[in-house]
Amino acid sequence: MTVDAVRLDRRVPPFGGFTLTYLRIELARKLRNRRTLIFTLIFPVTMFLIIGYPLRDTPLTDTPISAGGPSVAAFIMVSMAMYGAMMSATQTGASVAVERAQGWSRQLRLTPLNPLVNVIIKMIAGMLLGLVAVVATYIAGALSGVELSAVQWISTGLVGWLLASAVFTTLGLMVGYLVPGENAAQVTSLAIVLLAFIGGLFYPVSGMPDFMQTIAAFTPVYGISELARAPLTGDGFDVVALVNALVWFAIFLVGTVVFFRRDTKRV
Amino acid sequence: MTSSPAPAIEATALVKSFGAVRAVTGVDLTVRPGEIVAFLGPNGAGKTTTIDMLLGLTAPDSGDVRVFGMAPRAAIAHGLVSAVLQSGGLLKDLTVRETLDLTASLFADTRPVAEVLERAGIIEIASRKVGLCSGGQQQRLRFAMALLSDPGLLILDEPTTGMDVEGRRAFWNAIRADADRGRTVLFATHYLDEADEYADRIVLMSRGTIVADGATSEIKNLVSGRIVQATLPGAGTDPALVADLPGVEEVTVQGDRITVHTSDSDALARHLLTRTAARDVEITPQNLESVFLALTSEGASA
Question: Per-domain residue ranges for chain A?
């Protein structure tokens, strides 16, 4: 083997080190993690089939299904799809902080990779898996006889996916920086189940007792799920829901920045 | 003094405190391209903090670091410096090869993954999950990662921790071969024989500052000669017995036991055994360990 001298004229990679190789490996990691697959793909589809499918002939609104009104099954379908996207986003956010606690981020700082680009790559991978969850649940819905207009299919799916990703990636990041460690993902998964129940993801808020309805309107799942399901009823979206979503997103974002700063001071 | 190529490392008046703990109290260090430098010091001497500052992982409170004339972060982005750190974590769910594929993808130019796998001696475990690798194998993976960018400067913090004897030898052979290609190497170690055997230059650090810095042979000669110990009956009570000894540079007496620093241990031993009642004579050469102890012990002036 001929050895050439070590060269000192070097290039810096473009885009802060963003590469499709990293994105591909990040996706592969998710797809072979059994727990991630169960929570983000299998759980939503199964829950839709158990809860939503039997209600495919029950109208959601006063408009009968025969007259083009949405069924309760459609409501459950959108909710479960969002649940999958939320799970994927939260675990992604938490994993950034967990990998930081494990020293992997420190290892990455010995490479040209920009730390923000690292988070972006992981967010994209998390969103792609979330999109798979949404599409899988919608396919299960379509095969089960859920009928929506093309605009409804796309708008509910897109809004649910994007909102769930934005709000819950930041929630995951915040919790991860607050309690770094393997437990962060499990803690947040449990919290999301509770938040999903009280926020009306599995059960319409309008069917809850009055005081529960009031509480629900202040919880983080409420806003984004109301917004995502707004196209189903055709009523347009509620300003309260929009404010709820924006406020929670801001809270999680500020929390992430604050806890991240506290975390870096320690190192 | 600086000649035309920029020094591999140029650290000036580095100071770093963590709260009330003054980890580094003033480090000046210039390393020329191609040198192999050992960084020696007891735990808490500030070696790791200094290395962190050289790599831009920790910002100094004051002072400046240049790596090949650049800020550390810029040097890393150019692939000019890489490191094997004790604290660097790995993703347990990736395979060895995936870890290297990922790392390689982040640099503009790299050596082939197959080549670094072979050089680090882990080609046969390339498809193994990192979580199933032993500590020594993970350490060799970190080494392979550091080789990917073919860096001009390689910084190693206790690099052979967890490696067996065979792995350690292969590791140093690889480092040596790289140095011949012009790679600069700075390594922290607590294996004094490693520093002695593989470094051109030794930098001794104690309590946040550099207490000695020179060629390995110079550091070893700092305290030259040998130590002769013997039990000399009456030494504790009769100073004349000790004063008569030849070739004495420094002597300590505890009871009848004398410890003598000497440049001519043969003459001293002959004298002790033929002209005195001395017994239990022991002769030990100065080694890096004793140099190290002399320089870094309490109250030593360097």
Answer: 15-53+69-266
